[in-house]
Structures are given as structure tokens and as C-alpha cells.
Design brief:
Blueprint (H helix, E strand, L loop, with lengths): L5 E11 L4 E3 L11 E6 L3 E7 L4 E4 L12 E3 L6 E3 L9 E6 L4 E10 L6 E4 L10 E7 L7 E7 L2 E8 L7 E7 L6 E7 L2 E6 L2 H4 L7
Parallel strand pairs: 1-9
Antiparallel strand pairs: 2-7, 3-4, 3-8, 4-5, 6-7, 8-9, 10-11, 11-14, 12-13, 12-15, 15-16
Length: 210
Amino acid sequence: MRIDFHLNVIVEISVMEGDSVTLNCDLTEIKDNDVIQWFGNENTLIAEIHKRADRFTVYDDVLDGRFRDRLKLDNQTGSLTITNTTTEHTVFYYLIFTSRLSSKSFRVSVYARLPVPVISRDCSSSSSSSSSCSLVCSSVVNVSHVTLSWYKGISVLSSISASDLSISLSLPLEVEYQDKNTYSCVLNNPISNQTTHLDINTLCHTCAGI
């Protein structure tokens, strides 16, 4: 028998790795006849509520145990909280009110915490001269869905992006020794960033013979 659900709302949520995320039912109180089911990856049951039977159950061993000890049901509102999130929790979640013939979808994106980018002097660069020096900014670990950029003041000079964990990011910059402008290297993803400011006087005099 096919049951058609309605009121399918899609909610977009972005959080940092390690944070908690709450998927709201938008209820103030669960009624006696309410049956609520939560699915991860669209078709895997991860939690359910049968109010009349007073059953509030989480199935945290499914999907290779990625939800183990991380699922919490609100016994009053039916909302589901995922604690201590990791990037593995970036999936599509689905809520079904069986008793109300309605549903709600959540697209959750969990982003890895960003490292501080590192600026170093490139002493091997052939482009360095007596009046300028070559620098390189890089990420210290590989993270996904990030952009590395050089800024001059508030203007972007250059940038490079990657979504593949196997790709390491680095970006060169050539500056004059007497340059008085403010430069910074920024590593960012859609919800956060890390910035390192360039100290020309320190880094441009670190190579042997200069």
C-alpha cells in the first residue's frame, strides 16, 4: 500500500566538525497519537518515536556505527540532536510524521575545522632579486572544500581551491622588500576562515646570504 506524504520542507544546515546539530520537528509538544521516524541517508532508520507506547528509540549502530553515542531525542518536541559531529555526518536526513502524513528533509553539511595557513620564504625561487623576495602560503593539513587566497589589504590577489582531500594547497607571492602594503593569507570554507598576516621584515630576511 502506498502512502503519500505532503508538506515536504527542505532545511539546509552547516556546522563545524565537533559541534552539535539539532534537527527540529517544529513541534511544541508530541501528541499521544504521534509516530515520528528519523532517517539518515534518506532510507536508513536512525530514530523513532511512538508516543502512545512511550517508545523513544535511537538506532545508533546503523551506517557503520557513525552515530554511536551521538543521537539524542527530545522527548517533548521529537527533535533529533547529533552531538560531536564529524564530516561523515554530512548526509541527507529525512523526518516522517506517520500520524500526520507529513515529512521534512534536512541537508546537513559538516565542515572540518581549518588549520592556520603557514607563510614561508621560498629561498629556492629563481624569481627573487635584490629588491624582492618569493613567499609561499600553504595549508598544514589537507582538508576538503577550501580556498586558499592571498590578500593585499581587502583585495584578493590570487586564490586556489580544492574539494579533494588528497590535494595539498600552496600559493606563491612575490613582494618588494620595501613594500608597505598589508598582505595576508586566508584559508576558508563556506562557514569559517583562518588568516595569517605577512611580516615582510621578518620573512624576507630569512634566507642564507641575505
